[in-house]
Amino acid sequence: MKLVEKNIVKNVKELTKEHLLWILAANVKGLGDVGVMTLLGYIDTEKVTSAGKAKAYFSITPEHGNLKGQNHKYNHKAKGRLYGIIVKGVIMAKDPLYYRYYLRMKKYYATRKDWVERKDEPAWKSKIDHLAKRKVAALIISHATEVMRQNEGLDISAWKSHHDYNGIPGKTNVLTRIYPTHIFLLSLILRQA
∠ at Cα 166 (157, 43), nearest 5°? Predict the structure, then answer.
């Protein structure tokens, strides 16, 4: 990183040091400063009132396919940074929660009947890998937007009322620290694996 970029990161950290997202980042291997700045820069917590809306903005919902000629309503730069910086960093750093979830999702898709039948297709392994990364991206975005809305005192009931809530269970306030919850989520994932 160049000196100018390092100064920008330093200044942004100083301006946002009280934000709860930094607590999350301190407990997620590979998320890093640039990852937090990406989330802070691209997620508008006033508009993102549910995890689904956040995922749609980053194009990680099922209806956001990439068919040629379609007009997409998501932010291409945000999606690129999500996969290229955040998801890649978390997986490479082997974060205990997200990396384990990534491996579990790879195993799930590789053994799912409809994907097993397509095993002879070109680039089958990379498709399975992408599906798993998409799940990790969705979980990271869900956790990050929930924390960001908590930080601003906004309603997070949409996260908790979702039938497939996989947020920060047992913790109503991130100020109590993320790390114990991180371990709790990991234990849930390991039990399901």
Answer: 65
